[in-house]
Amino acid sequence: DYIYNLKRENEKGLDRTNVNGWHSQNFNLKDKKSIQYKFLISMKEYIFDVFNNYGWDIDPKKIVCTEMWAIINKKDSFNLIHTHPNSYLSAAYYVKAPENCGKFEVEHPNSAKKYAFPEVEVRNELNLEVASIEIDEGDLLLFPSYLPHKVGQNQSNDDRIVISFNVDIQK
Questions:
Q1: One-character DSSP codes across 105-120
Q2: Which residues face 106 on adjacent strands?
Q3: The whole model's pTM is what?
Q4: Which of 34, 59, 133, 140 has an alpha carbon within 20 to 30 A of 164's alpha carbon?
């Protein structure tokens, strides 16, 4: 309801990587009583877990969410390939994800691979140029911000709703 209300307040939204979908303005994360701030706090343990699993030596007090927004992709909407510069981690939380609403797709980050790489004899998950993930409602994807990614076309008759955010380390 919160995200649909945001859309009613600003039907146009932002023009980013979404094609025929709606992209919200950035959420106000300074209001500690707001639903978006509470959502961010509920994500904290997962964010810290990813930083720990990467083995990064960081001070947890310096990890900050730099921006958060929502996307509504109706039938036939999708997101173009992109990265999230100036961040370490990016996230996508699937608020609403009906069947056939579009896979999360990651492209191989080594652009040189397309031009200077041995021929692949046997395809596997280590040599794919594009890997895709079926997503479900309630899934949280945390991934390096430099990773080129896109979202496939929503082929369902229902909206796909995502909350995305970027995480950085204060210097």
A1: EEE-S-GGGGTS-PPP
A2: 131, 149
A3: 0.90
A4: 59
Q: Cβ(102)–Cβ(157) under 8 Å?
A: no
* pLDDT greater at residue 112 or residue 23: 23
Q: Tell me which residue of 60, 82, 72 sits closest to 14, measured CA to CA.
A: 72
Give yes or no for a contact between 59 and 163, defined as CB atoms under 8 angstroms apart. Answer: no
Amino acid at 17: T
| Residue pair 73/102 in contact by the 8 Å Cβ criterion | yes
Expressed in angstroms, the distance from the first to the final Cα of the chain is 36
> Quick one: which of 89, 99, 76, 55 has its CA closest to 169?
89
Q: Environment class of residue 16 by beta-carbon count within 10 Å: exposed (0-12), middle (13-18) or buried (19+)?
A: middle
Three-state SS at 60: helix
pLDDT at 72: 98
Tokens of 120: 């692949």
Report which secondary-structure segment, H or E, holds 92. strand 89-96
Taking only the tens place, the pLDDT of each residue in 101-127 is 999 999 877 766 666 667 888 988 777
Residue 130's closest CA among 116, 148, 146? 148
